[in-house]
Amino acid sequence: MSTLAVLGCQWGDEGKGKLVDALADKAAWVVRFQGGANAGHTLVVGDEKTVLHLLPSGILRGGVRCVIGPGVVVHMGTLLEEIEGLQKRGAFRGKLLLDYRAHLVLPTHYILDALNEKRRSIGSTKRGIGPCYSDKARRVGLRVADLVDLGSFEVKVKAHLEAGNERIEALGGRPMEIPALVTELCEQARRLQPFLADSVHALHDALAAGENVLFEGAQGALLDIDFGTYPFVTSSNTGVGGIPTGAGVPPRSIQRVLGVLKAYTTRVGAGPFPTELKEELGNKLRERGSEFGATTGRPRRCGWFDAVAARYALAINGVDCLAITKVDVLTSFRKIGVCTHYQIGGVKTDRFPARLDELDLVEPVYEFWDGWNDNLKDVTSKDELPALVQAYLARLEELLEVPIALVSTGPSRDALFRWGADAWL
Ligand code: IMP
């Protein structure tokens, strides 16, 4: 395997966590390089369901080194809850490296996120992600490195919260109770100290030794701050470009990119979604796919597969092979739509527009495929898939011009099998 990036190629929630967990049996390292606790990766092993927001999805595998890289923004309370929750169940099996360079999401960021969202709703998860990355860019953020010396951390965090209160009050918010927060944050800092590390040098040593490394994306290509449907995006580079900047490795060290796509499309929060189904069919996809946010519990918007958006996502990320997930959710639909082109102001195109005004005018051009009623629960190989499912997936592969490597037909670790002969995985 060597190095593999696993990236969401829609609007997030494609099932990347499950893929990373499954592929991690061959990996020595799993690296998160962007985002924060806005992510929600659901892993199902046996009867046990685990939802991770910050811990890399390799953490359930013994001996796997799990990096929270420089490009991630870390909410200490959430991270500790995840670590300690898994430790209690004896499921914290990997080794965690929390990079010194990662920035801290502090209470100020949560409050500012909520206040900003009141003024202009983009449907943020309100996990403080945007305000934390803004502070990083303004060069006033606090980093994991600041947790090393608790005495100076106390001073820095107090000053940060005081400055935060000024911003909160200016926006009409209620100021924070600083002394209690400082005590709580210092206590959290103390509990995280065993995990602090310089992951960059460690990762370079691993790459030099030829160890297998998985780069685990969060969110999806269309939520990328530069290439997504701005401003309805998250605040980081969710694509392949986020790996060098967020993990500290050169681009050439990313040997292969696995793009993860759901067999239909979903989106949480506001923003363009050309193939959204608003009524009965959308509700049916939501119910059958349990399409409710892993982080916020919000109902996800649902629609048919959008090959125009997917082709764009695969192109900007140089995707080599695909994993198609949640194929089982499409069981029992009489017809299944696939958007092959867009019609914008009477002009047919297969290009995903950069402009929101054009995205608002998109009329999807669909083709419809016959659905199936078969239960895919016990399918363990491509050959066992009903012919209509095979035909649908083969059509996606043809439209996307990237080979499918893996197909997922259920939430559990085992409901995953090979489609093509991809020697890499
Ligand atoms: P934020 O990153 O929490 O500020 O949210 C910005 C946008 O990205 C909102 O539309 C969120 O719903 C969306 N978003 C953030 N994280 C995820 C995710 O992990 N999956 C799906 N959507 C997400």
Query: Treating each run of at least 4 consecutive H or I residues as one helix, how many helices?
Result: 12
Rg over C-alpha atoms, rounded to the nearest angstrom: 21 Å
Q: Which ions and ligands are bound to the chains?
A: inosinic acid
Low-confidence stretches: none
> Strand-residue fraction?
15-25%
Q: Order of strands in the sheet with the most strands?
A: 9-7-5-2-10-1-11-15-19-20
Class from secondary-structure proportions: alpha/beta
Shape: globular
Average pLDDT over all residues? 95
Beta-strand segment tally: 20
* End-to-end distance: 6 Å
Helix content: 25-40%
Notes on the structure:
32% of the residues lie in helices and 21% in strands. The chain has 12 helices and 20 strands. The strands form 5 sheets. The protein has a 10-stranded mixed sheet with strand order 9-7-5-2-10-1-11-15-19-20, with helices on both faces. α3 packs parallel to α5. The termini are close together. The mean pLDDT is 95. Bound molecules: inosinic acid (IMP). Inosinic acid binds next to α4.
